Amino acid sequence: MDLSLPQMAEAFARRDRAFDGRFVVGVVSTGIYCRPSCPARRPRPENCRFFREAAEAEGAGFRSCKRCRPGEVARDEAAVAKALALLRTEARPVALADLAEACGYSPTHLQRVFTRATGLSPAAYGRALRQEAARTRLSEQSNVTEAIYAAGFEGPSTFYSAMEGTLGMTPSAWARGGEGVAISWAVAETSLGPMLVAASEKGVCRLSFNEGEEDLRARFPRAELRQGGADFAALLQQVIAAVEAPGAMPDIPLDVAGTAFQQRVWEQLRAIPSGETRSYGEIAAALGQPGASRAVGSANGANPVAVLVPCHRVVQASGALGGYAYGEAIKRELLRREREG
């Protein structure tokens, strides 16, 4: 998404690190150019010139700031892109030292720039890719052992260790479309309307508004659905409290599965402070993929647990509320409660 001059000026004024790499600022009075997050004192607005790339600023006669080193951003981006390509190509885990050598960086520096760009360490990103591959393989074939090796795991023990808490069911149950998995559920009345809550033994797997058992069965066609008992009632009360006062989010266990990209987006959503919002473009920039606004929107819409993963905190770049699966009124009310809570 291209940024307007006012958007760049605002990001520069607030030293927004999420916009590093998306533009640089030339300062006429000093002849240098900086990243948006540069800690130096801000120049007068009339002395600022905005450029999409460092090379463009240098072509206009500006030199790189020695404090924030904006010329290194492009090199970092190239290193991260190369590391991502290696992780996606190799079926097996790639050692950080090998990645760093291929990128021409030290392991420590690559770890830092990779994590800043993607929100995950290289090791965690590689695990997420293999987990995603495992889910795909398990849904396509019935032989669990073959699926484990095909997804790049060294054996069943490493697979079960890596997938602990992420599948929400055993691998064989996943391969059978959730058959044999017990999901407790209930529809509770809230001030926002009827709310469906469903949970496996590991955590909440569905939170939605104005849905019922039929909708839940369509999402989990082979699971054993049962009305929640006493244990579930305690979890249900926690969820209701979180919805009624979304600014004070308790630590509620979740059991959700998504692609590596969806997981990264959902983690970014959970990192947005209560009472604040972010645009799709800002989330994409924070992930190191500024052109992925539409993909962020799709991942946002795929969130299976409303409020607990706060997709309502994402708005349009203009500040308009944008879409919400359960209607604008609920989104507006959740944001109001967070701002005033």
Layout of secondary structure:
Blueprint lengths: L4 H9 L10 E4 L4 E3 L13 E4 L2 H6 L3 E2 L6 H19 L6 H8 L3 H12 L3 H19 L3 H7 L5 H8 L7 H5 L6 E9 L2 E7 L4 E6 L3 H7 L4 E4 L2 H15 L15 H12 L6 E2 H7 L6 H9 L12 E2 L12 H13 L1
Parallel strand pairs: 2-4, 5-8, 9-10
Antiparallel strand pairs: 1-2, 1-3, 5-6, 6-7
List the main descriptive attributes of the protein structure presented here.
4-stranded mixed sheet; 341 residues; single chain; flat; Arc Repressor Mutant, subunit A; DNA Methylphosphotriester Repair Domain; 15 helices
Describe this protein's structure.
- This protein has 341 residues and is an alpha/beta fold.
- The protein is built from 15 helices and ten strands.
- Strands 3-1-2-4 form a four-stranded mixed β-sheet.
Count up the helices: 15
Rounded to an integer in angstroms, the radius of gyration calculated over CA atoms is 23 Å
Give helix and strand order, one letter per element, not per position: HEEEHEHHHHHHHEEEHEHHEHHEH
CATH topology label of the largest domain = Arc Repressor Mutant, subunit A
